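Subject: for your reference before the review

Hello V.,

The reviewers asked for a structural picture of the protein, and I figured it would be easier to keep everything in one thread rather than splitting it across files. Below is the amino acid sequence we used in the manuscript, unchanged from the supplementary table.
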Amino acid sequence: MSHPISPDTIAALASFDTCAVTNAIECFDVRLRNEGFTDASIRCRLPSLPPLVGYAMTLRVRSASPSWKGENYLERTDWWTHLQSRPSPHVLVIQDMDKQPGTGAFIGEVHAAILQALGSVGAITNGAVRDLPAVERLGFRLFSGNVAVSHSYMHVVEVGGVVEVGGLSIAPGDLLHGDQHGIVHIPAEIADQITATAARIHEREREIVKYCHSVGFTVEGLRKIASGNPCPTEDQTGACPKS
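And here is what came back from the structure prediction:
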């Protein structure tokens, strides 16, 4: 990101689910509608927790076989300092580089606690996580390709750089939003406008749902209330978004 988003905006984004955020992003026509989010291979492991919002910090790891250097993931801690230097809140995004990702888990109770102390609110990986009940008690969000009982030969291969998780390319500093529906990348240039747009769309959706359950429901009435574009106008944004 070119500049950090205000804490108030981060908090406001966390009050919406990922579907609402995605609806708002679509208003601005900044990317194709089949891009910018993870595919079904990435699952939210703790759906009872509130939505995740934070800036990506990236790692590449392996766990299927030992490191050629003979080190394990607890013996390389330089990335802790790197993480602490980044704008918070952070989201640790881990690409498991093994041919079959997820042999071992990088994040469990201990590393979740460490990451929280360093300013992280959650982790996303195409690999594995573990200790789900303990991590849930910490309130640390987890998204992964699978769960595993062991950390196996887990070791860090690379710190920083662009990674790919669930079909989504993620760079350090990208603003991410996630819940039980998945992970979406929020484009920096429209981040400050997402919450107002999401609220406007949500209000219109509530009107439609309410009308569908009303005594006087008619198809003609539904067409009338559902017509129009809830996206912001040129006067509201300074640009002309498309629906």
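For the response letter, the relevant points are probably these. The chain is about 30% helix and 25% strand. The first strand starts at residue 43 and ends at 44.

Happy to draft the paragraph if you're swamped.

O.
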